[in-house]
Amino acid sequence: MIRKAFVAIVAITSFSALQAQSTQGHTGADLIVFNAKISTGNRAQPEATALAVKNGRIYSVGSDADILGLKSAETKVIDAHSRRLIPGIIDAHIHVLNDLAYNYNVRWDGVPTLRQALTMLHEQAGRTPDGQWVKVIGGWSPYQFKENRFPTLAELRKAVPNRPMIVQYAYNRAYLNKQALDVLGVGTDRFPKVPGTEIEKDSRGNPTGVIYGNTWLFVALEMAVPQPTFDEEVSSLVSSIHGLNRFGVTSIVDNGSRWAYPKAQARVAVLARDNRLNVRMPFVDLQLGNGGPVNMVDLELEAITKTAPISPGQNLYPTLPHGHEYRGAGEVLSAEVHDHENFDRPAIIIDPEKMRRFVEEDVKRLVERRIPFRMHASYNENISPFLDALEKVNETTPLDGLRWSLEHAETISPENIARVRKLGGGIALDDKMALHADGFIKTYGLAKALQTPRLRMLIDSGIPLAMTTDGFRASSYNPWVGISWMVSGKSVSGSEALAKDNRLTRAEALKLFTAGGAWFMNAESEAGTIAPGYLADFAVLDRDYFTVPEDQIKSVSSVLTVMNGKVVFGDQDYSGLSPQLPATLPTWSPVKHFGVYYQGK
């Protein structure tokens, strides 16, 4: 009996070993990249020239000779030609799922002159069919243009004479031509009545076409224009992810959209099913309801416990680590305490008592159920009462390691930084000051702008910290614009926007977009660094970020982006490795003609 048992064990062990070998495939590396200048982000091995990938993870980092020795007949080998290689960029606060009409929009991101921007609009007006709009929805700044100004209504109307047109600047203002004014009924009862809206009028009391407002106005306007089909939404998702890959982005946290869970997830599922989800996309859920006052926490609990039950950390795409995980609620948890952010206007200050009630009644329920949450809070005047109430909640319902964060926190004080750290929270900053600092300076003055945000103090505090883009509307989705601002201290206009003692080294700035973002994915032990065992996410750059002049940093892009050991973007020498994308929908899409970014297909 003992002999029979022994033989059985040996047989099972041998079968398991054979099975493991067959699952592993070949014995060498799947992918080797050599002849690179690798900035690993790993303090134990800060630099190397080559890395090897196996089963979607990095399994060796070292010299060319050592790593090439891991090659087998099946290994794909890529020569980096002495280019800089960095960990894949993690954007821990972006709104990809909010832009499922991405392919309907002319992107002005990176366009250097207003003249070129207006030419793009005019060209698009010629190809946009009847019944559709010509749209520019965020991602740009007047200060990026050589002319350093907004377009005039006369210029816009000349550019788009024959179709309804909306040009939206962040969540601050929109420009409409005559056709758009008529369709929306601006100045009549048909136009959405959203608090904080200001309709500019001429001397006769007629709307000029310029409208000022906040987030909710522009959400309402977006729902009033023609909507894409399901297939066009999937195509838009492909385009926006391709744009991210172009800059070396391999992971994002989608931070809420007007398409609440589980509706938007059906679009992601199409890409996941076909193995075309080329970015890791954990998501935070925002439940806006169907109009009118709602309790967003009630709606969130209903969605995740009854409508489509899901647990925090659950991955809807389990074959891709951190593929599409539910990471909790936010960034807006209540419309009543949302302080927006519009640097062209004074801060919106929330009634402290209203903030207290919201935290003690609604945020407390998230803490009780161990649901991670993110809180949009731009201004220190609103952060203080939020932390007052959260500290009180923590006394009776301990946070006890629950991941939560403040989003944006542009003007947070030293005292409140310390309080966030004590409560175990993180801060996801954003780089909107890179694009909009000139407006901030007009509203608040240069002295305040130079310390907004307190980058040096936040870095030194040791708090979990990331820099994000908050793309695609409030700011550009190009992370290198923000990295340039953090290093050089200059906004896109070239104006000084950060004090010298509030700027970061190139290594510090990059870390906020790599390892810093990993904490917000709950992946800091396996993402954002190039080291054995970490996810095989990295980018080979078109120029050496660490040595190019400061004024070139904003122009950095990737020539080779690898996510999960798979090439998801290739350019120049590596264009032949880039996966073929399906045809862009609709056929008249501005993205099809202009690309996902200025001069970038």
From TrEMBL:
One of the record's GO molecular function terms: hydrolase activity, acting on carbon-nitrogen (but not peptide) bonds
Domain Amidohydrolase: start-end pairs: 76-569
Residues in the signal sequence: 1-19
Keyword Cell division included in the entry's annotation: no
Classification via Gene3D superfamilies: 3.10.310.70, Metal-dependent hydrolases (3.20.20.140), Urease, subunit C, domain 1 (2.30.40.10)
InterPro entries for the chain: Amidohydro_3, Metal-dep_hydrolase_composite, Metal_Hydrolase, YtcJ-like
Keywords for the protein's UniProt record, in alphabetical order: Hydrolase, Plasmid, Signal
Coiled-coil region(s): none
PANTHER family from the UniProt entry: IMIDAZOLONEPROPIONASE (PTHR22642), PERIPLASMIC PROTEIN (PTHR22642:SF21)
Name listed for the protein in its UniProt record: Amidohydrolase
Gene source species: Sphingomonas psychrotolerans
